[in-house]
Amino acid sequence: MAAPDEGLRFDCGRICLDLLATSGQAGELLTGPDQLRRWLTGSGAVPPDTALDGVNGRWVARFRGLREVVRRVLHAELTGGEAVIDLDLLNATAAAAGPPAVEAVRGPDGALAPRLARPPDRAALLAAVARDAVALLTDRATRDRLRRCEGAHCRLLFLDTSRGRRRRWCSSGVCGNRERVARHRKRAAADRDGAATAAAGPEGAPPEPRAPGPPGPVPGAPRTSAPAPAPGDRRPGRAPHT
Ligand SMILES: [Zn+2]
Q: What is the model's pTM?
């Protein structure tokens, strides 16, 4: 019984990075041939509707193996390492076969669509993913956009194609949201601690309703060296959030 996608993601910006995303906080997602078929189609490694009857457990093992090689090479690259043996393995996989031959076939709607000329070959598909990693590593502009997710416990990589190059998370809806929730909780706790002496924060947590009149400091309670804010002063009373 096939689930729609079982957590597979295709938003890392490259096929080789999407392969890395099949293992992470959610655990192993390439758990069998069905999952690998879905990944191959969803990532665009093969044209839509390609028959993938030949995919079996050996394919799964090889794709998992390539995934770890790519991961080690890219992480080494990001941290100034070399990963010599893994780079050799990556290059060997890339050179092992030519890319799958694709032909243009007219579909029922009259438009030309891609179709593999032959049933997909495992070595050719592995080579296609490995070549994608080689292309990423050797293109300076693309390589400079490679980022590691800042989410706690997340080790996914992605290409930052945002306009300001300030993307921080593999997914705003996953790691980004997790961090926003954690930050909100931290702020709420800090606001509770300092509610009697500090002004409400400028953003995020909804400000406490404040009665008019001078906010008297709580005797013996201040934890900050900053002077008590004047009435109506809404400036931040603490360091900006990161
Ligand atoms: Zn992440």
A: 0.73
